[in-house]
Known about the structure:
Layout: E1 18-21, E2 26-29, H1 35-53, H2 60-87
Amino acid sequence: MPFNHIELRNPDNSYSLGCCNTQQKAIYINSNLSGYQLNKVIRHEITHAIIYSYDISLNAAIEELLADFCATYNEEISYYFNKIKEKL
Length: 88
C-alpha cells in the first residue's frame, strides 16, 4: 500500500513501513519497499502477528526488540538450523 496509507499512520502522524492490525487480523506493508528491507519488514510484522496469536503479553519496547531481532536474524538462524539438521 502507499507509504502514506491510513493503516501505516502512527499516533504521532508519522508513518510506519509496516503494520500488524490485530483487530482486522491483517498485515499492511509499504509498497515502496523492496529487497532486504521488504523482507525484514514482513518478518517484523509476522513476529507481531505470532505474538498476538499466542496472546503473549509484552511491553511495547520488549515486543519491538523481539520483532526487530527476529526480522534481522531469521535468515541466519534458519541457515544454522539447516546446517545442524543436515548432520543429524
